[in-house]
From TrEMBL, chain A:
Name this protein carries in UniProt: Peptide/nickel transport system permease protein
Keyword Nucleotide-binding attached: no
InterPro entries per UniProt: BPD_transp_1_N, MetI-like, MetI-like_sf
Transmembrane segments: 12-31, 103-124, 136-159, 193-212, 252-277, 297-323
GO biological process, one term: transmembrane transport
Domain ABC transmembrane type-1 as annotated: residue spans: 97-320
Keywords: Cell membrane, Membrane, Transmembrane, Transmembrane helix, Transport
Organism of this sequence: Halorubrum xinjiangense
CDD domains assigned: TM_PBP2
CC per GO annotation: plasma membrane
PROSITE patterns attached to this UniProt entry: ABC_TM1 (PS50928)
TrEMBL record, chain B:
Family: Belongs to the binding-protein-dependent transport system permease family.
GO biological process: transmembrane transport
Organism phylogeny: Archaea, Methanobacteriati, Methanobacteriota, Stenosarchaea group, Halobacteria
Protein name: Peptide/nickel transport system permease protein
InterPro entries assigned: BP-dependent_transpt_permease, MetI-like, MetI-like_sf, OppC_N
PROSITE patterns tied to this protein: ABC_TM1
Gene Ontology cellular component terms for the protein in this record: plasma membrane
Length: 330, 339
């Protein structure tokens, strides 16, 4: 199978999973006590008013009609209107999504840039103080609740030293890019952006940094003990080339799979990090919608979160297949 | 199954690894704290003493400036006075905003974390393991269906799904009488332990899929083994084979995963409590949420101390998990470790 066909096959499977996600999200309303009408109707609404609301929201239809209608609307990009805000859910969700994606990418960059060198140094200096240091750091990292880490960062860097902002988003990364593109002075915008994003990115990224460090370290140790490494040494290849070209490449393959699987943790972590730093992303929207029983907004956010997970995982699988062509034939 | 070779490996790894010893020590410490909480806690963790609120931990007495407004001769004046905030030896970790003893709250919080962590893991395993074993053993349609369900399940982050389910289903809790208090051994302490039952069910429901994945993988590789074939040739039915031959040989990776899951669920529980989606107020995550409001006014300990407790427990359990993994080598690196 070619890489293209593999990508196509994974995409088709992905569509199936997204359909499952939509179905689960739709079904959620029917395994929840209380009617959605309660979220919209005033407490003292008469029976007639309630029926009118039910008819307007389509809640008086049989289940399969409601489900069909939901899927039909969804295919046209219509996720209904928020009960509370009255806004189109599609608009609302896509307004919030960039902030979450920006935070998640910033956290991943922080994590990957620090973790892979740390893991490699740790593995190539086994049982040195630097290895112990990295091991303890990564152990702490996977064991620290990210919301608490966020509060501690606020305590140290914002309250004590007053360096960073702790609430909201300031400017988005697009503004920074725009200033650079227009050859305007961009340093100020860039600094503002950093002042807002640095602490949440560290709070969210630390767990992943720790996880990737651990995986890279154990993977490298595994690879370095294999026969091909000795053969390459015997052939006289320089040590750095073997480490960084051969061993690291083979190490990264399983690391990528685990990262794909753990992507849900990254998104879940973003939800709580957003709550700590009042970051105006999807996570804050999910929590607001649950507290208000704002069904359309909740369903829309969950569908977008689930779909993003599926999309990124297809991407991860294709990268994986590129790095390790054997999986394509599996 | 747990053979003498397994025990030997465990002992060998334990002797060699200082971290394994540290992990076991931490876990034992937390277990004892949780079980004997009524005897360890010096105060009732829910008792509010407003005249003793916001006391710093021992060693952190300080003078701070407090500004208050007063009516002097019909005009409002702001008065700034030096206030000496002295730690009270009766409150080792200080008190929170309502004058509750932080140390006692940390001790009692261990109960919530451990009980939710262990019960949630047991629930997740008791759903995931049978489903995974059946799917991996029978393959075919059952397996395809399971893998699709698992894909959909993984697409929802545990925390997001848990928040949604608890938010929608409500935050039910059960009062479990504390045997020590009922027996009259610690009369000052809360009479019952509040078990946040919805949280237990939900964390089990959102994490079963990790167990199903691992159990399925094991069953897939074990179904072709000679002893399974031999048993089948002797006429044993499938369920007997799964129970007698597949499960015992799949148990090692399941135990390792279970350990990591307890840590992951403790983190998940604290996140849920922090966001206000729990059924109990005696939880480390809940205390961090309370303490968050005091961070900018200088009472740093209210949010910091419960977080350290979470961190130490999770480090302990993770070290235990590392020890089991290194000694038993089940080959499931990085599976299911997250909240």
């Amino acid at each position: 199978m070619s890489l293209g066909r593999f990508a196509l096959k994974r995409s088709l499977q992905g569509i199936g999973v997204v359909w499952g996600v939509v179905t689960v999200v739709f079904a959620l309303r029917f395994v929840t006590p209380g009617s959605p009408i309660n979220a919209v109707a005033p407490l003292d609404a008469s029976q007639e008013t309630r029926q009118a609301i039910a008819a307007e929201l389509g809640l008086d239809q049989p289940l399969y009609i409601q489900y069909g209608q939901y899927i039909f609307d969804l295919l046209q990009g219509d996720m209904g209107r928020s009960y509370i805000r009255g806004q189109e859910v599609t608009t609302l969700v896509f307004e919030r999504l960039p902030a979450t994606v920006e935070l998640a990418i910033a956290a991943s960059v922080v994590a990957i840039v620090l973790a892979i060198p740390l893991g490699v140094i740790s593995a190539t200096n086994r049982n040195d103080p630097v290895d112990y240091g990295a091991t303890l750091l990564s152990l702490g990292g996977i064991s620290t609740p990210n919301f608490w880490l966020g509060i501690m960062l606020i305590l140290i860097f914002a309250v004590e030293f007053n360096i960073f902002n702790t609430s909201g988003r300031g400017v988005d990364v697009g503004d920074v890019a725009l200033s650079v593109a227009n050859a305007e002075p961009f340093v100020g915008t860039l600094l503002t952006w950093l002042a807002y994003i640095t602490l949440p990115a560290i709070a969210l990224g630390t767990y992943f940094m720790a996880l990737i460090t651990r995986l890279t370290r154990s993977g490298m140790l595994d690879e370095l003990s294999k026969g091909y490494v000795q053969a390459a040494r015997a052939k006289g290849l320089p040590r750095t080339l073997i480490r960084y070209k051969h061993a690291l490449r083979n190490t990264l393959i399983p690391v990528i799979t685990v990262l794909g699987l753990q992507l849900g943790t990254l998104i879940g972590g973003a939800v709580i990090t957003e709550a700590v730093f009042s970051w105006p992303g999807l996570g804050t929207l999910v929590i607001e919608s649950i507290n208000n029983r704002d069904w359309p907004a909740l369903q829309g956010s969950l569908i977008i979160i689930g779909t993003s997970f599926v999309l990124v995982n297809i991407l991860v699988d294709v990268v994986y297949a590129y790095l390790d062509p054997e999986v394509v034939n599996d | 199954m747990v053979s003498s070779r397994v025990i030997r490996n465990l002992k060998k790894e334990f002797r060699q690894s200082g971290l394994a010893k540290l992990g076991l020590a931490l876990v034992v410490l937390i277990l004892l704290t949780a079980v004997f909480a009524p005897f360890i806690a010096p105060h009732n963790p829910t008792d509010q003493q407003l005249d003793q609120s916001e006391l710093p931990p021992i060693g952190f007495s300080e003078t701070s400036e407090r500004t208050s407004s007063q009516m002097v001769d019909g005009e409002i004046q702001t008065v700034t006075e030096e206030v000496e905030v002295t730690a009270d030896p009766d409150h080792v970790f200080g008190t929170d905003g309502l004058g509750r003893d932080m140390f006692s709250r940390v001790v009692y919080g261990a109960r919530t974390s451990l009980v939710v962590g262990v019960l949630g893991t047991v629930l997740a395993a008791s759903i995931g393991v049978p489903v995974g074993l059946l799917a991996g053993y029978h393959r075919g349609r059952v397996d395809d269906a399971l893998m699709r369900i698992a894909d959909v399940s993984l697409a929802f982050p545990s925390l997001v799904l848990a928040v949604a389910l608890i938010g929608l289903w409500g935050r039910a809790a059960v009062n479990v009488p504390d045997p020590f208090v009922v027996a009259g051994l610690a009369p000052e302490m809360p009479e019952s332990f509040v078990l946040p039952i919805t949280v237990v069910i939900v964390v089990g429901l959102v994490n079963w899929v990790w167990f199903a994945r691992v159990a399925r993988g094991e069953a897939l590789s074990l179904r072709g083994q000679e002893y399974v074939k031999a048993s089948r040739a002797l006429g044993a039915d499938d369920n007997t084979i799964i129970l007698r031959h597949v499960l015992p040989n799949a148990i090692t990776p399941i135990i390792v995963l279970g350990t990591v899951q307890v840590a992951a669920i403790i983190l998940l529980e604290s996140s849920l409590s922090f966001l206000g989606f729990s059924g109990t107020t005696l939880s480390w995550g809940f205390d961090i949420a309370q303490g968050r409001d005091y961070v900018s006014s200088g009472q740093w300990w209210i949010a910091s101390i419960p977080g350290l407790a979470i961190m130490l427990s999770v480090i302990g359990i993770n070290l235990l998990g590392d020890w089991l993994r290194d000694a038993l080598d089940p080959g499931i690196e990085g599976e299911g470790g997250a909240a």
